[in-house]
Write a structure and sequence with these properties.
The relative contact order is 0.12. The protein is globular. α3 (about 95-100) links the parallel β4 and β5. By secondary structure, the protein is of the alpha/beta class. The longest helix is centred in the C-terminal third of the chain and has 20 residues, at about 380-400. The strands form 3 sheets. Strands 13-12-11-10-7-6-14 form a 7-stranded mixed sheet. It has a 5-stranded parallel sheet with strand order 2-1-3-4-5, sandwiched between helices. α1 (about 15-25) crosses α4, α6 packs parallel to α7 and α12 (about 320-330) packs antiparallel against α14 (about 405-420). The chain has 2 domains: about 1-130, Response regulator (Rossmann fold, 3-Layer(aba) Sandwich); about 150-440, pyruvate-formate lyase- activating enzyme (Alpha-Beta Horseshoe). The chain is about 35% helix and about 15% strand. It has 15 helices and 14 strands. The structure holds iron/sulfur cluster. Iron/sulfur cluster binds next to α5.
């Protein structure tokens, strides 16, 4: 029996969610084919040859695209067992099942996939001792690393990027985060030798930069420092980037400097908002002042900071949005922030801890299965109108390949106009682009664009 693993989208990275289960299944003797749908199409003509088809739903955009494909997969492979797996699986079991999935698994899916594959083949269950909890991902049939997001450095120099994870889960409990309902404040470290072996195989395929995809690289600071040190010792020319929350940057300035010394050139951090009331609702564990402090720590370490945001929430005010743009300008981030970050609307998936917030329900409509979340309406319709205008403008800018500064200027005008204010000159220093950034600006918590969904439809 052949097994097909498909990934709709992993924000421009070679899909880890294909490479790791593929390794586990192949080690058990299964015949596995991987397809990254962001760079290729499903083998529609011979889909019926596969006895098990597993689609990764690691993030919101991937889940929305998977939803469009599942009924067609069912149509083309009526006898196949269809599985969805990944972070967004458990909260959306009912919706994914209604669309054609037979089984829905969470992110810790390898053992269950193994059982399911064995079951479909009629094999006896694997002995627990024979199970592989974490093995070196198998990337043999994934597209070349050069086809994925690249690191862009000074002078527009480009580096091929490897993707690795050192932990799974997260020890924090931010209310809006999709990791929280699944991991409930827990994380586990992956074996250092396995992480380094995975990096090694990608360096042998041309990578000169590693993007660490952990929810937060400093959940286990000692583990992170050991891996960064080993990476630097073995491959001193290789740089890396990681996601680190604002409060961790503020708590560990010494570690930020050590990471920089080991080749860290870029840190992604979820700033979300500059409004302390919004940050408290989201239980982010930092304040606007902390963001300014973290920006200084990272800058002094000589590392680029890539901030991400959730600007539109039920608590956002017109003035608050305008002040968000002011803070971005004051921090010199006009050329740093990907415009889509300024359009993101808070997602409320099933199981979200936001639902526990007293009074939050009054903002919500009924659960919308096709959107995999609860739609919400702002009490001030002008805020929703501004969000729609910002979203349209950002999509237009993406099509026109407009500069970030020009798009920011357009949003600056929209925000001031919405507040009934004259539009002041943007008046920010003529800063160059940040020293380092990734060429894929999308972020996992954004709604897919019309263009992304159109690609899914075309593929179907
Ligand atoms: S938002 Fe980041 S730090 Fe907060 S729970 Fe999610 S992964 Fe952890």
């Amino acid at each position: 029996m052949r097994i097909l693993l498909a990934s709709p989208y992993e924000i421009g990275r070679q899909p880890f969610a294909l490479a790791h289960p593929a390794a586990v299944l192949r080690q058990a003797g299964h015949d596995v084919r991987c397809v990254d749908l962001s760079l290729g199409a499903l083998p529609w003509d011979n889909l019926a040859e596969f006895g098990l088809i597993a689609v990764s739903v690691v993030m919101h955009t991937a889940t929305r695209i998977a939803a469009r494909l599942l009924p067609r997969i069912r149509e083309h492979a009526p006898a196949a067992r269809i599985v969805c797996y990944g972070l967004y699986g458990p909260a959306h079991t009912a919706a994914l099942t209604a669309l054609g999935a037979d089984t829905v698994l969470g992110p810790e899916c390898e053992d269950a996939l193994l059982d399911f594959a064995g079951d479909v083949e009629g094999r006896p269950p694997e002995e627990p001792a024979a199970r592989a909890t974490f093995v070196v991902p198998d990337r043999r049939d994934l597209p070349d690393l050069r086809r994925y997001a690249q690191l862009i450095g000074p002078g527009d120099a480009r580096k091929t990027v490897a993707f690795a994870e050192t932990t799974r889960g997260c020890k924090h409990l931010c209310r809006h985060c999709p990791v929280v309902p699944v991991y409930r404040g827990r994380f586990r470290a992956l074996p250092r030798d396995v992480v380094l072996a995975d990096i090694h195989q990608q360096i042998e395929r041309g990578a000169t930069h590693v993007s660490f995809g952990d929810s937060d690289f400093l959940n286990g600071p000692a583990h992170a420092v050991r891996i960064a040190g080993a990476l630097h010792e073995q491959w001193p020319h290789v740089t890396f980037d990681a996601t680190i929350k604002i409060s961790h940057i503020c708590q560990h300035p010494d570690i930020i400097r050590r990471l920089a010394a080991c080749g860290c050139v870029l840190i992604t951090s979820a700033v979300e908002s500059f409004d302390d009331a919004v940050l408290a609702h989201l239980a982010k564990g930092h304040t606007a002042a902390d963001t300014f402090a973290a920006a200084a720590i990272v800058r002094e370490a000589g590392v680029s900071l890539l901030p991400t945001f959730v600007p539109f929430t039920p608590w956002t005010t017109l003035d608050g949005y305008r002040e968000l743009l002011l803070s971005i300008r004051d921090l010199g981030w006009v050329d740093t922030v990907a415009p889509i970050q300024l359009a993101i609307r808070l997602l409320v998936p099933a199981g979200s801890h936001l639902l526990d917030l007293p009074g939050f329900g009054r903002h919500l409509g009924a659960f919308a299965a096709e959107q995999f979340g609860f739609p919400w309406v702002h009490e001030d319709p002008r805020v929703d109108a501004l969000q729609r205008a910002v979203q349209r403008r950002v999509e237009e800018a993406d099509e026109k390949k407009e500069t970030r500064r020009d798009t920011f200027g357009a949003l600056w005008a929209l925000a001031h106009g919405a507040c009934g204010l004259a539009v002041p000159p943007l008046a920010c220093p003529d800063a160059a682009l940040p020293a380092f950034r990734l060429s894929e600006p999308w972020y996992c918590c954004a709604e897919p664009t019309t263009a992304q969904l159109a690609v899914a439809d075309a593929s179907a």
